[in-house]
Amino acid sequence: MFLKLLCLFIVIPLVELYLLLSIGKATDSLLLPIGMVLLTAVVGATLVKAQGKKAFDDIKAELSIGSLPGDALLDGLLILMAGALFLTPGLLTDLLAITLALPITRSFYRARLKGWCKKKITMNV
Predict the structure, then answer these.
(1) Mean pLDDT of 17-39
(2) Which of 2, 7, 87, 124 could be cross-linked to 11 through a Cys-Cys bond (beta carbons 3.0 to 4.6 Å apart)?
(3) What interhelical angle do 12-27 and 91-101 show, nearest 10?
(4) Which of the pair, 98 or 125, is modelled with greater confidence?
(5) How far apart are CA 32 and CA 37, in angstroms?
(6) 9 CB-side CA count, 13 A
(7) Do the domain assignments include residue 53?
């Protein structure tokens, strides 16, 4: 567990910083990496807001017919994770966040998360 936290809070930001500095050095411009981070922040905020609203509407619709909103709740969780990743400045985390926020790629993560949950539930029964 300690190694995972170490990776999360130290290694990933260092890799992100190295990548941004490398892009700046390769292009002889400080504005390009800063612009890339700002652009992904704006696009990410817009995408997360729209997808979050859709997930919330899907949850409400499923609850209104008396159905459990399993997939919609997982989508909401994945969109929330995407929003948190967009808050972290960097290109790799933004790329991962985009794949979590887009419906077509989010289905991949949802399927993996469902499998993980099923595995945890069956192991504890």
Answers:
(1) 90
(2) 7
(3) 110
(4) 98
(5) 9
(6) 6
(7) yes
In the chain, the number of structural domains is 1
Amino acid at 48: V
Sign of CA pseudo-dihedral 32, 37, 40, 46: negative
| Cα dihedral across residues 107, 55, 120, 65: positive or negative | negative
Residue ranges of the alpha helices (H) in the chain?
2-6, 12-27, 31-64, 70-87, 91-101, 103-124
Structure token pair of residue 60: 């409400």
Parent domain of 34: 30-124
Q: What is the radius of gyration, based on Cα positions, of the chain?
A: 18
Cβ–Cβ < 8 Å for 90, 13:
yes
8 within a domain of the structure (yes/no):
no
**Alpha carbon 113 to its chain's center:** 13
The answer to whether residue 125 scores a pLDDT higher than 70 is no
